[in-house]
Fold each of these.
Amino acid sequence: MDPEDAEELAAELHGKPVDVWDLLQIAAGTGLTAYVVWAGILMPGFRKVPLKLQVPYVPANANQVENVMSLLKGRSGKMVDLGSGDGRIVLEAYKQGFRPAVGYELNPWLLRLSSYRAWKAGCYGKVSYCRDDLWKVDLSDCKNVTVFLAPSVLQLLEKKLLVELPDEARVVAGRFPLPNWTPTSMAGEGLNRAWAYDIKTVRQSEQDRPEGSPV
């Protein structure tokens, strides 16, 4: 069954336009549940991205958000979240004074959820959620970057960040550390841990690395 067919079936059963929550209710208790979750929530964002660059959506918990934001304490300027999911980190960054606060996310359902969360918090129109591929966005004017991404893509992300970010930028990774960079500081424990990396320090370390040493 094609994803569009699944949505048409749900619309017929309800007699009205459906959103993701309608689809889940229709599918509950049937063999369609797993398919609808994939087709309605995950697949729309993944269709445009090569398999090796795909990142599954796992929302950050309250402790993870708190630890990430603690590593940005005292900083200001533009903040971006790469693969912003349901938008909670962007929303918290705005509340803590970052301007602008921007999330990049390909999945349209998650973008709608992000907008709803912003509206509910009284921040609709004050934060930005963009349907853009994080691998293609220009980060040259970003001073604060957060990432909650899978380990499989982090080494490639390091290269993009080093090429594009200004020296004064700080990158904060949640759940998994960047594999080849030494963090400036850390917060939290276990899966709630976050790591902060200052780009100027990382660049200096890269320059000091002996030629031919493993990356």
Amino acid sequence: MFGVVFPNRSFPMDISAFSQIDTFHWILDMNTFVGEEYDQVREVCIFLLNSFTLPPDKALSVYIQSPGSPFLFCGAITVSRPSAVLSLPWPEPGGQLQLTATNSAPTSAKIGVSVEDLASLPSLDVVAEKKIQRMAMKVGENLFNFMQSFCGVDGSRLIVPMDILDRWFKKFQDRAKRDPEYLKGFAL
């Protein structure tokens, strides 16, 4: 039906690595896969296998769950998009308790896969949208911190030098050229 690969972490794994909950739901217990370092697994590649045909109005959705947190939608694949590399933005453990069928808090991180109606899913680019939003917020915060170090106060107004944006942008560009990893910090 489907397979997954964790880039730089695993060989391709098929559906047999997952526990089947019912006809349309599967769970991968990350404790058995990587132990407590589940949050270091940042991406998953999910793909439909050639022998499986998903109806055109259905999608194979991927969710993640940290211990003590609810499931979080990460993305989906469809017949027209038979594979995807999805980011895994693990929530902080214990944010909200969501009780399982056994009335106990989940004790391990999980990746859930589910067959769902395509129309009921959020945009399949939801992860890309969140990445862009997170990156914009981090760039804005970087600019704010830079400007704050040059601020003066005049009553209820903050005063900054006229060339502050030019100076920040030049510093930002220079740092990105010197350190290729610098911009990756804004995308996480």
Amino acid sequence: MGSAILVAFTVLAFASFALASDPSPLQDFCVAIKDTKDGVFVNGKFCKDAKLATANDFFFSGLRKPGNTSNQLGSMVTPANVDQIPGLNTLGISLVRIDYAPYGLNPPHTHPRATEALVVLEGTLSVGFVTSNPDNRLFTKVLYQGDVFVFPEGLIHFQFNIGKTKAVAFAGLSSQNPGVIPIAKSVFGSNPPISDDVLAKAFQIDKKTVDYLQAQFWTSN
């Protein structure tokens, strides 16, 4: 009996150790400082006294309205995260509405802190994501009204309206602050710009092409 208890205790101890890990960050980075007067609160936001909370802290009407798709990509993402709905703080979930003009594109991007589940409300979308190295496998599907597709956390993904009419989709994300990294804008629209030498070698293109791409207006969609 004594040895069985010891084994059970050891297993429980290792399980507890395995589960004891830092929470996932809700920002890009957090630089440590010793003087807290210059510090900021991370992994969420300061909490309101629960007695002072109101229904409006959990409400947002911004997803009623179509986004303006009059841009070079022909799409617009309207977020409903903790910045729009304070009551989402610590709850680990958020939403977006995505509007697409005919042949509009939500370009390749990643969410560093969230998995995304997208449902098509109107139109026809070609969607997909690419797995990590070494396979770089493309998973792609054509979605129709009512169809759902999941984009795993951190993987590059996209949606393209292949119809002649507008399209609308809603998506749930598994973070109150999922973040978004548009691939083209991040690489060619960084501030300050990434070196021509780096990009020319990385993409196997000449520096004139790099300069041309860096000179483009990269939307924040």
